[in-house]
Amino acid sequence: MSEIIGFVGMSHSPFVTMLPPDSAAAPGGAFLGDAARVEAAVAELAPDAIVVIGPDHFHANFYDVMPPFVLGVESAEGFGDFGSASGPLPVASALAWSIHEGLAAADFDISLSYALTVDHGIVQSYKMVSHKDGIPLVPLIVNTAAPPLPGMERCVALGKALGAAIRGSDFDGRVLVVASGGLSHWLPSNDPRDVSVAGEKRESLIHGRRDTRAFAAAREPRVRAMGGDPTARVNADWDSWFLGQLAATDLASVTALGHEGLEEEAGSGGHEIRCWLVGHAAVGEPLVWSSYEPVPEWITGMAIGTTFEVV
Q: Who's near 230: CB < 8 A, 6+ residues apart?
């Protein structure tokens, strides 16, 4: 049986690597320094596998088929968007299949992939905690990009089932759970029902799978142009409140916000906290250490939360 040895919740942003700070005192320096601290702690924990929960930013999932949850069970490949790692990633297939069986037994009809493409939403946090070791991962994508989104209570329930599935797995090893998602940030709409989403953009959101590379090549320059915006909005007070609820294991106060309440407080990008809810519920322990740095120049506030077993 597997043992869950800890949880890492970590923001991701393409700009953390594209616009690195000049010094530790510059914006983003604290985040990168604390990320290095987490990487060292993970190395000491020596996990045999890492379950990584994160979103996709229209590099694998589009509105021709938009599943709420996708589990990679055999192979995974980094898309390489915004300078993130590209190419094959090691997958802990035995653990992945065991997780799938456990989730199915808990009445989660989760989508699965034998060949999953993952973008920076999975790869960046995975590499930040483990890039020196090549630890095998199990990628779990949560749709946070645009409606219909899985309910937050459903994400908590999935997390609890995920934790039980890991602990009951035939995989004999030490498992770290990593949740990758930004906290509060405001992004343009990706909802095809929104009248502001029209023309080529709407077509790409629905049919981008026909040529994912062409779609990404057209979209990425527009996103890169958002970098370095000192007026980009974050809600640092809400972010601190959210981290406090995880420290108190009070997920009910977060889920009580509902879709509209969450978006009002944390923006459309704030829906990525669903990944944190899944991971935190899987581990079932309080958040015992956290670091937060609001970095509007990179579009999103950066945060790291951890809970580690004492070894």
A: 296, 297
Closest-CA residue to 7 (of 56, 41, 32): 41
* Active-site residue flag, 185: yes
Structure tokens at 72: 């990679």
**pTM strictly above 0.85:** yes
Ranges of residues in the chain with a pLDDT under 50 are 297-300, 310-311
Provide the sign of the torsion angle of the four alpha carbons 201, 203, 206, 209, taken in this order. negative
Give me the catalytic one of 12, 59, 100, 185: 185
Q: What is the pLDDT of residues 165-192, one digit of tens each?
A: 999 999 999 999 999 998 998 888 999 9
Out of 120, 131, 207, 280, which one is annotated catalytic?
120
What whole-number distance in Å separates Cα of residue 10 and Cα of residue 100?
24
Q: What is the DSSP string of 61-78?
A: -BTTB--SEEEEEEEEEE
Query: Among candidates 181, 141, 155, which has minimal Cα distance to 267?
Result: 181
Residue 33, amino acid: G
In the residue annotation, 59 being an active-site residue is answered as: no
